[in-house]
Write a structure and sequence with these properties.
Mean pLDDT: 82
Distance between the termini: 41 Å
Shape: elongated
Largest sheet: 4 strands, mixed
Oligomer: single chain
Structural class: alpha+beta
Radius of gyration: 16 Å
CATH architecture: 2-Layer Sandwich
Number of helices: 4
Family: Belongs to the asp23 family.
Number of domains: 1
Low-confidence stretches: 45-51
Order of helices and strands: HEEHEEEHEH
CATH superfamily: Cation efflux protein, cytoplasmic domain
Protein name: Alkaline shock protein 23
């Protein structure tokens, strides 16, 4: 079970370097939320449109599959009303790919963006008041 959670990226003369799948998911989630026009991450299909991403769970709405040298990422996102969704999704794909590859050395073969909702300004105001 422990081997499933970790990806052995490299074995050196000093030992192995292992990166947990959760680490890749956190990197992807954080990189995605840096993109302007993205309101937050969704909890996935089962949860429907979930509440906005906070710093508590940075891997929310992120599913990763990590192989020996490659990774694939699925992101479930909520965009802000009025943005061009294809442009935001493309920037999310680029930012996530760059962040994972530069931080882990893994080759990202695909970043799938699943837009599951639109956030309206009124909804954001209500969340600030709470």
């Amino acid at each position: 079970m422990e081997a499933d959670r970790f990806e052995e990226a490299e074995r050196t003369s000093l030992g192995a370097i292992r990166i947990a799948n959760e680490v890749v998911a956190v990197i992807a989630g954080l990189a995605a939320t840096e993109v302007e026009g993205l309101a937050g991450m969704s909890g996935g299909i089962a949860g429907g449109i979930a509440e906005m991403l906070g710093r508590k769970n940075l891997s929310r709405g992120v599913k990763v599959e990590v192989g020996e040298r490659e990774a694939a990422v699925d992101l479930y996102v909520i965009v802000e009303f009025g943005v061009q969704i294809p442009e935001v999704a493309l920037r999310v794909q680029e930012n996530v790919k760059q962040a994972i590859e530069s931080m882990t050395g893994l080759k990202v073969i695909e970043v799938n963006v699943h837009v599951q909702g639109v956030s309206f300004p009124e909804a954001q105001e209500e969340q600030r008041v709470k």
